[in-house]
Amino acid sequence: MTEEKEKIEVTEEKKEEVEKKPKKQQKQEKKEAKKAKKEAKKQAKGEEKIVGVVEKADKKKEKLEKKKAKSDKKADKKIEKIVKEEKKDEEEKKPAKCENCDECCGKCEKKAKKEAKKAQKKSKKEEKKAKKEARKAEIKAKAQEVKKKAIVMTAKDLENEEISSEEKSEEHQD
C-alpha cells in the first residue's frame, strides 16, 4: 500500500509539474496567436489599401489611355482633313486659261501659286497645332502614371511605417 501511495504522490507531483508547464506554454501560445492575428489583420488592411489604390490607379490609367486615343484620332482626322483640302486646292489652282486668250499668260499662274503657298502655310500651322495637342495628351498621360506610382509608393511606405511602429510598441510591452 505504501508503494501505491508513493506512486500516487509521485504521479500527482508530475501532474502538477505538467500542469504548470502547459500553463506557461498556453500563455506563450496565446501571445503568439494574438501577434499572428494582429499581423494578419495588418497585412489584410495593408493589402486592401494597396489593392484599392492600385484599382483606382488602373481606372485612371484606362481613362487616360481612352482620352489619349481620342486625341490621337482627332489629330489624325485633322491631318487627313488638311491633306484633302490641300489636294483640292492644288487641283483647283492649276493654271487656268486666261479669258482673253487660249494660252495662259503669267498673271493667272502667279496668282494660283500665291494662293497655293498661303493654303500650304495654313495647313502646316494646323498640322503643328494637332501635333502639339497630341504631345500635350501624352504628357498628361505620363504625369498621371507618375502620380499613380507615387500613390502606390506612399501607401507601401505608410504600411511599412505602421508595421515598424507596432513592432516597436510590442517590444516595449514585452
Q: Quick summary of this structure?
A:
Residues 1-99, 113-147 are annotated as: Disordered. The chain is mainly α. 91% of the residues lie in helices and 0% in strands.
According to DSSP, the number of beta strands is 0
The number of distinct structural domains comes to: 1
Query: How much of the polypeptide forms β-strand, as a percent range?
Result: under 5%
The major beta sheet can be summarized as: none
Region (Disordered): 1-99, 113-147
Biased composition (Basic residues): 113-123
Biased composition (Basic and acidic residues): 1-32, 41-65, 72-99, 124-147
What labels describe this entry?
rod-shaped; single chain; mainly alpha; about 170 residues
Write up this protein.
- With 174 residues, the chain is an all-alpha fold.
- It has one domain (2-82, 124-173).
- The chain is built from two helices and no strands.
- It has helices at 2-92, 106-173.
- The protein starts with a helix and ends with a helix.
- The mean pLDDT is 77.
Task: Please render the helix and strand layout as text.
Elements lengths: L1 H91 L13 H68 L1
Helix pairs in contact: 1-2
